[in-house]
Amino acid sequence: MVIPFGSERRKEVFARLRQRFGTDVSRLEGEALRTGAGTLDAILRGGWRRGGCYEVVEGCSGAGGTLLLEMCLEVARRERGFAALVDGRDGFAPDAVDEGLLPHLFWVRCREVGVALRAAELLARDGNFLFHIVDLRGHAASGLRRVPAATWYGLQRAAKHSGQILVVFSGAACVASTTLRLVLEERFGIEALEEERARLAAALRAGSELRRASGFAGGPPHAG
Amino acid sequence: MRVKTTGEDGVIYGSVHLPELPLQALLRHRRELRGAEGKGALAVLDESGGHSVVAAMNRAAHAAGVRKGMRPPQALARCRGLRLFPRAPETEAAVSRFLLLAARRLCPLVEATEPGRVTLDLRGLREQGERIAALESLCQRGAEAGLTLRAGLARTPDHAVWATLKGRPLHVVEDLDAFLAGLPLRVAGWTPRQMEVLAGWGIHSLEAFRKLPRGAVARRMGREGVEILERIEGSRCRLLRPAREPPRFERRETFETGIESREALLFVLRRQVDELVLELAAADRAAEGVDVRLTQESGRPCVRPLTLPEPSAREETLARILAGVLEGMRTDSPIRGLEVRLRTCDARLRQGDLFSVTMRDPVLFTRTVDRLAAFVGEGMLGSPRVSDTWRPDAFRLAPVKEEGIRAAAEPPRARRGLPWSRFRPARKILVWCAEGAPVAVEQGGVSSSVRARRGPWTSSGDWWTETPWEREEWDIELEDGTLCRIHRETGGWFMEGIYG
Question: Is-above-0.80 flag for pTM?
Answer without folding.
Answer: no
